[in-house]
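Tokens for chain A. Residues wanted.
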């Protein structure tokens, strides 16, 4: 399966929220307001993996301590798209952007 990693903006958080809310390991519901408030306070990196137009995974990081460092906060891949390297690719792109 071929996928593409894209950096997305805070205005496109719905992709991330949709992914996170469909990952069974997370027991809470992610809301746009909460994510946006945390990510809009400083520098952030928001990545999403897509197959065509379908978001299948994400990785989110931000400058948590306002010291120039990047804190890798959230991420995941939908169960049906695991084991094809998506999480590793998201991590590698995140590291290169950080």
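Reply:
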């Amino acid at each position: 399966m071929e996928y593409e990693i894209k950096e997305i903006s805070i205005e496109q958080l719905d992709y991330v929220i949709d992914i996170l809310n469909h990952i069974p390991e997370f027991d809470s519901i992610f809301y746009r307001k909460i994510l946006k408030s945390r990510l809009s306070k400083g520098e952030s990196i928001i990545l999403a993996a897509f197959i065509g137009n379908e978001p299948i995974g994400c990785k989110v990081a931000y400058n948590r301590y306002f010291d120039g460092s990047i804190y890798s906060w959230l991420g995941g891949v939908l169960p049906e798209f695991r084991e094809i390297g998506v999480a590793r690719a998201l991590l590698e792109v995140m590291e290169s952007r950080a």
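The longest strand covers residues 54-62. The radius of gyration is 13 Å.
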